Amino acid sequence: MDATGPTGGPCRERGGAVLEVGPLSGRPGIRASGEIGVTTRRSWENALTELSRRHADVSYVELSGVRFVDVAGVAALAVTAMNLPGGRVVVEQPPPQLPRVLRLFWPSLQRIDVAPR
Predict the structure, then answer these.
(1) What is the DSSP string of the chain?
(2) For position 17, what pLDDT does the model report?
């Protein structure tokens, strides 16, 4: 689930963007930091795939260290939540654009709860 480079550090994609993703301690979910965009999308989508594999009832996505997420990154999160067999995803401390994009494109999606910064 980690987006790490060959030395075990953060995955630095072309263009200089960095996304680091790892498990949360003490509860089911992931913590991400860096940027979620075109150059880091594969790492983000891989982390969400792993999150959905381990999902039980509630999964947490902690994003306090994420500076930016593009529309496709929010879409990947929304699609992951919609495809869960049940339960919900709680997104904690996302960058400001994430809840706005969710409200704009998925206003009735009830599988995601957003706890703001």
Answers:
(1) ---B-TTSSBEE-GGG-EEEEEEPSSSSEEEEEEEESTTTHHHHHHHHHHHHHH-SSEEEEEEEEEEEE-HHHHHHHHHHHHTSSSSEEEEES--THHHHHHHHH-TT--SEEEE--
(2) 77
pLDDT digits (tens, 9 = 90+) for 49-66: 999 999 889 999 999 999
> Which residue shows structure tokens 């959905």?
52
Regions of the chain where pLDDT drops below 50 = 1-9, 12-13
Q: Write down the domain spans for the chain.
A: 19-115
The model's pTM is 0.84
pLDDT at residue number 6: 34
CATH of 19-115, one of 3.40.50.720, 3.30.70.1350, 2.40.70.10, 3.30.750.24: 3.30.750.24
